[in-house]
Amino acid sequence: MDLRSNFPVGSPRWATRRTQWKALGLSDEDVVKPKIAVVNSSSKLAPCFSHLDDIADHVVEAIREAGAVGFEIRTVAPTDFIMAAGGRGGYVLSSRDLLANDIEAAVEGGQLDGMICLASCDKTTPGQLMAAGRINVPTIVVPCGYQPCGVLDNGEPADIEEVFIKAGHVATGGITVEDLCTMSDRAIGGPGVCTGMGTANTMHIMAEALGMGLPGSAPVAANSPAMWENARASARTIVEAVLAQRRPRDILTPGAFRNAVAAVLAVSGSINSVKHLQAIAVESGVDVDISALFAELGREVGPLTAIRPSGPDSIEDLEAAGGALGVLSQLRPVLDLEAATIGGRTLGEVLQRAPEADAGIIRPLHEPRATHATIQILYGSLAPAGSIVKLSATERRQDSFEGPARVFEDAAEAISAINAHQVEAGNVLVLRGLGPSGTPGMGMASNVVFALNGAGLTGQVAVVTDGQLSGLVNQGIVVGEVKPEGALEGPLGLVHDGDRIRADIPARTVDLLVSGEELERRRLTQPGRESATTGGWLGVYARTVTPLERGATLVPDTAPALHHHYAKDS
Fold first, then answer.
1. Greatest Cα pair distance in the chain
2. Scanning 51, 158, 168, 547, which has its CA 20 to 30 A from the CA of 386?
3. 79, 49 Cβ separation under 8 angstroms
4. Helix (H, G, I), strand (E, B), or coil: what is residue 29?
5. Residue 243 contacts by C-beta under 8 Å, 6 or more apart in sequence?
């Protein structure tokens, strides 16, 4: 077959490419074989990525055994816990798009024939899939696994999620720094991503549901026999996909996105999946409104699993019970079974061969853990373009909240006010300026929520923010990713202390109870807001990022308005 990496053989340019590759030890036969990028977001900055170099070496060898040539390429490696320390947290989400650009530069610039993406921490999987949709070369995602965690002396699990949550309790005396450090010493026992159903494991499951990972690939323990076997099988599959020209835009259809949304709802996955799926759709040229899909499917799909922190079960339990493949099997009635997969079979054909799921861990569709969807999309006068609430899979919190606003422009200021008892029961804590444009890059609001929890105010104070939230936030009424964000023209930027705000989850509304005339007066008299950063990468990001409703991508917002595919009632 004609390979783009070999074009034009016999030309002066081919001679220069050939001599570069032969200098790496490739033979004359090698240089005309399919050339596969092994996309490695390796880093020794965090355990999420610390094992990827070994995996990359094995994948390159497996690609060679399958009759092609693998070239390892490196990208930025975004990790929330480490990189959120700088730029008000803005480097984390913005690095997702930097990663997609890293991939484009190497794969498109080098005219490679396909890529196999080693997926690890939260932003790597969506960034890789965004690049796949953009450059449209055959691509497969390989989940590289979750980390082992430890136990405390009392037998309670100690993992990074618990450390993250309990850190918000230090200032109010809920836990000492010494005890927190003891917990943190035992929280991580090896490489891999966080063990709960946070963003990373949600993204790995999402990739499989989209058809871009092999069936049965997620979740998986890092460096386990199952992970290594999937890596080898994925290497064989990507070579087959290149020869068959199975491209991402043939797989990433509206039906595939529907399947991914259903899977995220079923596993009570991270709310960050909403913006990441929207970003992948935008980069892939797919006209689909992900929020509308969550709103529609949320009426049909309750949580079928209850994995920590949404319930008592572990990620190991989910893997043993059938993983993403078992979840998809239980979801058959609501899935697009004609959706293609990277392996060449339709999803329906894949599920015909799937083993039966353990119904004790992965419930049938008609017997969910709860009747409510764990990701709720709220609209209203405060969030005309939408917002998100995450609910627990096992506990139903209060349905509604109304109170006066207490407005903060900075997370640290909000936490200080909480610790000084300046935020009172009945308040609605409004934290704005943490959106993609305002931070820039999107700041983390979770620490504020955990500070409220540590102060004993969970359920007594509601939170409304344009910032992003950890999947661990599933208590009290917390409305995240309010759109338009506070830095853009819209209601959130006009909220004053004392304004009454009402959130009603069953009605799926969040409203600012201020007259239109008063808001218009504020709009005309209130000074405009400026981005916190104008230089460096974050400055570039701030000047080019599109709104959250388009996934906060760097794709110019010139495409037609997104339609509500599949949405019966948005």
1. 75
2. 168
3. yes
4. coil
5. 1, 34
pLDDT of the residue at 533: 60
For the chain, helix (H) and strand (E) counts, in that order, are 20, 14
Q: Which regions of 101-257 does DSSP assign to beta strands (E)? A: 114-119, 139-143, 150-151, 157-158
Which residues, in sequence order, are bridge partners of residue 389? Answer: 376, 479
List the one residue out of 5, 71, 77 whose CA is nearest residue 38. Answer: 71
Burial class (CB in 10 A: 0-12, 13-18, 19+), 460: middle
Element (H, E) at 186: helix 177-187
Task: Write down the residue that tokens 């200080």 correspond to.
Answer: 416
Q: Give the per-residue pLDDT at 158.
A: 81
User: For residue range 160-195, what is the model confidence (pLDDT) as tens digits?
Assistant: 777 877 776 777 777 888 888 888 888 899 999 999
Alpha-carbon distance of 424 to 39, in angstroms, equals 49
The CA-atom distances, in angstroms, between 109 and each of 95, 104, 106, 155, 262 are 20, 7, 5, 52, 36
| Distance, CA of 200 to CA of 546 (rounded, Å) | 23
Among the listed ranges 80-89, 106-115, 353-362, 527-536, which one has the minimum average pLDDT value?
527-536
Phi, psi of 414 (to 5 degrees): -65, -45
User: Strands 500-504 and 400-408, how do they pair?
Assistant: antiparallel
The one-character DSSP state at 149 is -
Q: Residue 432 in 3-state DSSP?
A: coil
Whether residue 215 contacts residue 326, with contact meaning beta carbons closer than 8 Å, is answered with no
Q: Name the token pair of 350.
A: 């894949």
Euclidean distance between the first and the last CA atom of the chain, given in angstroms as a whole number: 46
At 120, which helix (H) or strand (E)?
none
Give every CB contact of residue 160 below 8 A, 6+ residues apart in sequence: 81, 147, 149, 187, 188, 194, 195
Strands (E), 419-536: 428-431, 462-465, 478-480, 500-504, 509-512
Catalytic residue among 41, 94, 392, 470: 470
Which 8-state DSSP code applies to residue 458? B
Q: How far apart are CA 43 and CA 320, in angstroms?
A: 29
Cα 532 to chain centroid distance, Å, stands at 24
470 in catalytic set: yes
Token pair 């909480």 in the structure block, residue = 418
**pLDDT single digits (tens) 457-515:** 988 999 999 999 876 677 789 999 999 999 999 999 999 999 999 999 999 999 999 99
Rounded to 5 degrees, what angle do the CA atoms 365, 366, 372 make?
Answer: 85
Round to whole Å and give the CA distance between 377 and 508.
6
Joined tokens for residue 364: 């049938």
Lookup: tokens for 117: 């993406």
Q: What pLDDT score was predicted for residue 471?
A: 65
Q: What is the pLDDT of residues 260-317, one digit of tens each?
A: 999 999 999 999 999 999 999 999 999 999 999 999 999 999 999 999 888 889 999 9
Measured CA to CA, the distance from residue 504 to residue 398 in angstroms comes to: 9
Helix (H, G, I), strand (E, B) or coil at 232: helix
Q: How confident is residue 341, by pLDDT bands cut at 50, 70 and 90?
A: very high
- Comparison of pLDDT for 562 and 315, the residue scoring more: 315
Q: Are 451 and 419 in contact (CB under 8 A)?
A: yes
Rounded to 5°, angle at Cα 417 from 86 and 374: 70
81-112 burial: b if 16+ Cβ within 10 Å, else e? bbbbeebbbbbbbbbbbbbbbbbeebbeeeeb
| Joined tokens for residue 254 | 């509206």
